[in-house]
User: Fold Protein CutA chloroplastic from Melia azedarach.
Amino acid sequence: MASALYSRASSIVSSPAIRRRLPLVGAFCMLSLGLTNLCPTISSSFKTGCAQSFPLLRSKFSNQANSVSTIKMEGSSNTVPSIVVYVTVPNKEAGKKLAESIVKEKLAACVNRVPGIESVYEWNGEVQTDSEELLIIKTRQSLLEALTEHVKANHEYDVPEVIALPITGGSQEYLEWLKNSTRGE
Assistant:
């Protein structure tokens, strides 16, 4: 039965109308949510999520959540409220210099440098397109103001990007390491 439903679902997803509108991320969302939530033409008996319906997915992913110690941020005294901060820089050298200064000052536990991004934005009334590098910074929420000031003081842009997103949970060990690798404020 699962193979028949998979074949039917595959033919719906592979139709030109859906394929043109469905980016790769959308395909993963369909797998995560179950096809019945997004495609009402699929049989009502296909009510389980894809990982439950397809044995290969179920066997590969069903036990992963249990093998890693995860927590919600408010659930442990060994962690602190933490954030991920995005900062763009104009080139590799600027990214390396800023990332190293942030970690050296203990304003973040880790900075990932992602080269080769292209930013499209409006500046002074004109649309601009620039090659940049993205810094993904993991730090304490309490250090956001100090981190922002550090970025402003050490960045060549007039208005550097500093955008913070909350970390709502994750690996207990990683979040403890993040806490211990940053200065307390």
